[in-house]
Design goal:
Blueprint (H helix, E strand, L loop, with lengths): L1 H20 L14 E9 L13 E5 L2 E2 L4 E3 L6 E8 L8 H15 L6 E8 L3 E8 L2 H9 L9 H10 L12 E8 L10 H10 L2 E7 L10 H9 L5 E2 L29 H24 L1 E5 L11 E7 L4 E4 L3 E2 L5
Parallel strand pairs: 5-6, 5-8, 8-9, 9-10
Antiparallel strand pairs: 1-11, 1-13, 2-3, 2-12, 4-11, 6-7, 12-14
Helix pairs in contact: 2-3, 2-7, 4-5
């Protein structure tokens, strides 16, 4: 018995000595190999979409260094998840019916019944609230919109944060779908717990592109106009101002007297309502067109082991006379 124990101890000592002679391996260098998704919109000087470009026409830079584009697509059937954010504050009570119909039209255009296109609905007044979870069925979202009534403050930043931090997945798709938010509102915020800096960071981390359809009335300044322009511009989207053109065909409207004020198209008249509706629907067509005609570039960034909080992106197109819109950058997840 003692002999067997001695042999076991001797074997253990021999194995330990052998292991001690093997040099230890260095710690592996951890780098982030996650792909970065960059939706890109290209328009000519008149704002018309340029949809016939090829991979060779694009150059992509991360922190000023050229990157290899691993995936390129300009097909119009790419999977998309759209968050519809609707301002339900008191500011929208006057023209709510028009905005309501505009939101319904937007949902109908962006969710045509194809399961590659999914959407969800978030309303915001004093608080942000998820009204309808992710679905490809536009009627479910439309039913919710029809039952909504405005009133209260505006928690826009909380709504963006809620929309960006939701866990979204479209089953059956090999590639992560593009994530888009469309805000129907004037950009003001007086009720959020989150700040604009916080929501910008989370939108850039989640690779979300934000568009806005402003409800700012013609001739009036909107308190949140600059902030709406910022959250859209820095994420690669833009703001449409459908009500700015309400009086574009009216000559000398400011000098036209009326008891209600200097408005050639009076509130409550058919002409005024038609002008508002026409502007909103043109803006919706622009948003729908942009979402469905974006190019999508994907790449694995180099040098992601270099600590940096925010990395800047630049996209160039080798075609003269075009304008390029893409996200300003992203926050890498470095272990």
């Amino acid at each position: 018995m003692l002999g067997k124990i001695s042999l076991a101890l001797a074997a253990a000592v021999a194995m330990y000595a052998q292991a001690a002679q093997v040099p230890s391996l260095p710690e592996p260098i951890r780098v982030n190999i996650s792909e970065v998704i960059v939706p890109v919109t290209v328009t000519d000087i008149k704002g018309r979409f340029v949809s016939n470009l090829e991979l060779k026409d694009f150059k992509l830079f991360d922190e000023g260094k050229p990157q290899t584009i691993r995936y390129f697509s300009h097909e119009q059937n790419q999977p998309v998840v759209v968050g519809f954010l609707v301002d339900m504050s008191n500011a929208n009570r006057l023209h709510w019916k028009t905005y309501q119909e505009a939101a319904i039209d937007l949902v109908t255009q962006l969710l045509p019944g194809d399961k590659r296109y999914n959407g969800y609905l978030v309303s915001y007044s004093n608080e942000a609230e998820l009204q309808m979870d992710t679905t490809w069925d536009s009627e479910k979202i439309i039913d919710k919109i029809r039952g909504m009534k405005p009133g209260g403050g505006a928690a826009l930043y909380d709504a963006i944060y809620l929309a960006c931090t939701r866990r979204l997945q479209v089953k059956g798709e090999p590639l992560e779908p593009r994530r888009v938010l469309v805000i129907i509102g004037d950009g003001h915020d007086n009720a959020s717990k989150k700040s604009i800096e916080e929501v910008l960071e989370v939108a850039q981390r989640k690779m979300v592109t934000i568009f806005g359809i402003s409800t700012k009335a013609f001739g009036f300044a909107a308190e949140g106009e600059a902030n709406l322009a910022r959250v859209t511009g820095e994420t690669g989207g833009r703001v449409m101002y459908p009500l700015e053109g309400v009086y574009k065909d009216v000559s000398g409207y400011l000098s036209t007297p009326s008891d209600e004020g200097n408005y050639a198209l009076k509130v409550g008249t058919g002409g005024y309502a038609a002008a508002i509706a026409s502007g909103m629907f043109r803006a919706i067509a622009d948003v729908a067109g942009e979402v469905t005609t974006q190019y999508v570039l994907r790449y694995i960034p180099t040098d992601t082991d270099v600590p940096k909080t925010f990395r800047n992106i630049r996209v160039e197109v080798s075609v003269p006379g075009v304008q390029v819109r893409a996200r300003r950058g992203y926050f890498p997840d470095i272990p």
